[in-house]
Amino acid sequence: MKRTHLSQLAVLATVAQCGSFRGAAKELGIAPSAVSHAVSSLEARLGVRLLARSTRSVAPTEAGAQLLERLRPALSEIDLALESAVEARDRPAGILRLTVPRTAAHLALTPRLGAFASAYPDIVLEIVIEDRFTDVVEGGFDAGVRLGESLQRDMIAVRIGPNLRGAVVGAPSYFATMPRPSHPHDLVGHRCLRFRFSSGILYRWEFEKDGEEIELAVQGPLILDEDHLIANAAVDGAGLAFLFEDYVREALAAGKLIRVLEDWCPPFDGFFIYYPSRRQMRPALRAFVDFFKTTG
């Protein structure tokens, strides 16, 4: 294969990713006419139309989509090899993209992001907040962070934090008028502060004790999608909250919240960074994994 063919294939992949010749030109740092010429030359050489053009957008034809699907792993390996060669000159560098749920960002990453940035100033860390489980390869990410129970078997997973534990809490003002539950089923009739995932699903409160597992669809006056807001509402006496211990540790110590059902909230696996198995691992990703796994 001639080197010009490789560059044309790279241009084709960029056009498909950007959805336009102008966007691809900006991404590649070349003129739009050069992008158009590269794609047209490739189509002429193969004798097949690879991109369907309209006045508003550009999209792969069926033949183009099949070609890109076969090309994607090879182009990824080339990018990885080039990035590794650049990084090997001195120290880990480049953009590192992660998909991370908001809770993991708050509890596992945020406390050490400043130290990581200082240790690796040539790495640009991009964190995309997503509560749903994301296919890191399909999403164009280097890695992701999720709870251990959510990981796929075909991923390499490295623990980056300690075990976690939930806590059911309420304010003294709340318990001044409501009884303290001693069993999960006692939550019926209590005002519970509920959490909605970005997928639209409401979290069902999960409990376990002596091998017995209970999952409840609680009821209450507030539905929020941010743990800090739920914690604040609980302190204000709006109802009972079910949160990770770390979100309410200070409020418990200060007497602003009271914990109940503690014996029904055992610890469980914390957060892991996960990434696909590759023959080569980018130095930037290796640096991130090594830096954060020491917290566990």
UniProtKB/TrEMBL annotation:
Q: Name one GO molecular function term.
A: sequence-specific DNA binding
Alphabetically sorted, this entry's keywords are: DNA-binding, Transcription, Transcription regulation
Q: Which residues form the signal peptide?
A: none
Q: Which CDD domains match?
A: PBP2_CrgA_like_5 (cd08474)
Keyword check for Nucleotide-binding: no
**Which InterPro entries does this entry report, sorted A to Z?**
LysR-type_TF_proteobact-type, LysR_HTH_N, LysR_subst-bd, WH-like_DNA-bd_sf, WH_DNA-bd_sf
Q: Which residues form a coiled coil?
A: none
According to its UniProt entry, one GO biological process term is: DNA-templated transcription
Query: Where does the HTH lysR-type domain start and stop, copy by copy?
Result: 1-61
Query: So what family is this one in?
Result: Belongs to the LysR transcriptional regulatory family.
- This chain's protein is named LysR family transcriptional regulator
